[in-house]
Amino acid sequence: MNALHKFLIVLILSITNNCHAFTTSKQVAVKLARNAEVRPLSDDKTNNSVNAINQATSILNRYDQLQMKYMKENPIGMGGGTAALQFLQTVITLQDREEMRNAVITLVNEAHKQRAAKSSEGRVMLGICAENVDEALLGLKTWVPALGLPRGLLHGMDVDGEPIAPEELGSVYVKYNTGGCMTFTEMRKTGLGFDALWKPGDAVLEMYDGDFRGVYLNVELNDGEFRQFGVLPTDLFFEEEEW
After folding, report:
1. Beta carbons of 203 and 152 less than 8 angstroms apart
2. Helices 41-73 and 94-117, interaxial angle, to 10°?
3. Alpha helix (H) ranges present in the chain?
4. Alpha carbon 85 to chain centroid distance?
5. pTM for this model (two decimals)
6. 41: Cβ contacts below 8 Å, ≥ 6 apart
7. What are the angstrom distances between the C-alpha of 161 and each of 136, 157, 165?
8. Under 8 Å CB-to-CB from 96, ≥6 apart: which residues?
9. With contact defined as beta carbons under 8 Å apart, do 201 and 167 qualify?
């Protein structure tokens, strides 16, 4: 066997080995890719979302319990309403407010996702108990945009088209709803018939003689758990430059 033959044999063996190595590497890569495809990433995201929802719910429930405890120890105002406000003004710290804000945002963001997937889910309702109209409007004008909620019409500040002076209304309660649509009982109560049919983001203002001051938050998620919190601070999302 001459030198040329030996060279050709070595070259052929080298190419064969390289091709085998390439094929093996490709098979390994395909196997790894297939393994990556079946990894339950969506489950991880779902678990993280559920954990965040549970944590936010727990945080707001804890503040509710602390507020109720304070009200029992300091029974001031009708139903403890004045004590509830006092709790928000004197006990809650800036750090507490930040924790409240983050918890509220977490739950409302989840409501947005669920409503985007199915229009009958993810309803958010606000109930604002205020000393006067200006305070109620402060709540609406800060909570609604901060949470990315729809803006609708505010009903209840006129009679047959004639505006009611805010000072005549005194303390007020504002009911806000992202879900739209009143019940027939609620529609009859307004005396407006189908003109009272709510659209997403509409709110209605009524006179209020209670002592509570603040915001009730109700978030309806598809897990069926009842989530109503409050009262929360009316100015929870207030920033000086907004007002």
Report:
1. yes
2. 130
3. 3-37, 41-73, 81-90, 94-117, 133-146, 166-169, 184-190
4. 23
5. 0.75
6. none
7. 21, 9, 13
8. 63
9. no
CB-CB contact of 139 with 128 (8 Å): yes
For 123-180, the pLDDT digits (tens) are 999 999 999 999 999 999 999 999 999 999 998 988 888 889 988 999 999 999 997 5
Distance CA 85, CA 149 (A): 25
SS3 at position 6: helix
Contact yes or no for 177/123 (Cβ under 8 A): yes
Quote the tokens at residue 163.
């505006």
At 132 the three-state DSSP class reads coil
Predicted confidence (pLDDT) per residue in 139-148, tens digit = 999 999 999 9
Q: Name the pLDDT band for 77 (thresholds 50, 70, 90).
A: very high
